[in-house]
């Protein structure tokens, strides 16, 4: 069985108390509880209740054959810190959706004063990522962990997607951008994205770490993402020329 936690990331900044996403913290609810407490002073942040999260998962699985394994498609931090137990992982490409920095991050990897940006699947194109398979007997319990992780803010929506792999197509659930949410940033130009990623940080780490880890997994599987690579070069150029500040 694959390991559930990744605790090898270095601390981002002494300003923030380091928070790690682990299967244990997702299972006992302490991670979401800490996020809710941190955001309690901001009335604009409205999180789903535990019951609403589970109802959403059950609605997604309704009609799915209970005897069949469930697949999940990850394209960002789920690839390098899945924080869940799965039976198998394999690379794949989702069609009809592309990886995009289209969600603002005011906590976790950003602050209200210096927001970061997080990845989501947005409409059109394609995206390489990783598939994770959960045996039917444990599927709901394990899929609940990434569900709690990604769905509690309401900024993602869940969709069944087709993922092409070397062994054939797979039907998998994944998390796409909720375009109706206040955190949805839309289509930003790459210079603006790079400027935010270069400086944004929070309790989960920096946006630069997130970008580097995502690219590292893709490269390890012989894949690439030209948009992310251009952002990496822009950030490196920004650091080298030392023109600080967020545009």
Question: What fraction of the residues are assigned to beta strands by DSSP?
Answer: 25-35%
Q: Numbering strands along the chain, what is their spatial order in the largest sheet? A: 1-3-2-4-5
How many distinct domains?
A: 1
Separate helix tally: 8
Q: Pairing-aware structural class of the strands and helices?
A: alpha+beta
Radius of gyration: 17 Å
Per CATH, the superfamily is Gamma-glutamyl cyclotransferase-like
In the CATH hierarchy, the architecture is Roll
Number of strands: 7
Molecular structure report:
The protein has 247 residues and is an alpha+beta fold. The protein has a single domain, classed as Gamma-glutamyl cyclotransferase-like (Hypothetical upf0131 protein ytfp), CATH 3.10.490.10. It is built from eight helices and seven strands; from the N terminus they run αααβαββαββαββαα. The protein has helices at residues 23-27, 30-38, 50-61, 77-80, 139-151, 190-199, 207-220, 226-241, and strands at 70-74, 88-105, 116-134, 156-165, 168-177, 201-202, 205-206. The strands form two sheets. A five-stranded antiparallel beta sheet has the order 1-3-2-4-5. β4 (156-165) and β5 (168-177) form a beta hairpin. α3 (50-61) crosses α5 (139-151) and α6 (190-199) crosses α8. The longest helix has 16 residues, at 226-241. It is globular, with a radius of gyration of 17 Å. The chain starts with 22 loop residues before the first helix and ends in a 6-residue tail after the last helix. Residues 5-13 have low confidence and may be disordered.
């Amino acid at each position: 069985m694959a390991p559930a936690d990744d605790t090898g990331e270095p601390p981002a900044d002494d300003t923030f108390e380091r928070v790690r996403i682990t299967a244990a913290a997702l299972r006992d609810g302490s991670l979401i509880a800490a996020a809710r407490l941190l955001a309690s002073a901001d009335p604009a942040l409205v999180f789903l209740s535990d019951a609403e999260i589970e109802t959403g998962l059950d609605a997604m699985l309704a009609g799915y054959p209970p005897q069949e394994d469930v697949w999940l498609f990850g394209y960002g931090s789920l690839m390098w810190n899945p924080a869940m137990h799965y039976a198998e992982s394999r690379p794949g490409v989702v069609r009809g959706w592309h990886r995009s920095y289209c969600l603002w991050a005011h906590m976790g990897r950003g602050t209200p004063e210096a927001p970061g940006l997080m990845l989501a699947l947005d409409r059109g194109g394609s995206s390489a990522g990783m598939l994770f398979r959960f045996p039917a007997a444990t599927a709901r319990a394990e899929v609940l962990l990434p569900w709690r992780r990604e769905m509690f803010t309401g900024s993602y929506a869940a969709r069944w997607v087709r993922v092409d792999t070397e062994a054939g197509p797979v039907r998998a659930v994944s998390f796409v951008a909720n375009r109706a949410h206040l955190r949805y940033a839309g289509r930003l130009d790459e210079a603006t994205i790079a400027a935010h990623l270069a400086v944004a940080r929070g309790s989960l780490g920096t946006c630069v770490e997130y970008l580097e880890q995502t690219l590292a997994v893709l490269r390890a599987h012989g894949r690439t993402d030209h948009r992310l690579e251009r952002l990496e070069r822009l950030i490196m150029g920004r650091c080298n020329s030392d023109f600080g500040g967020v545009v």
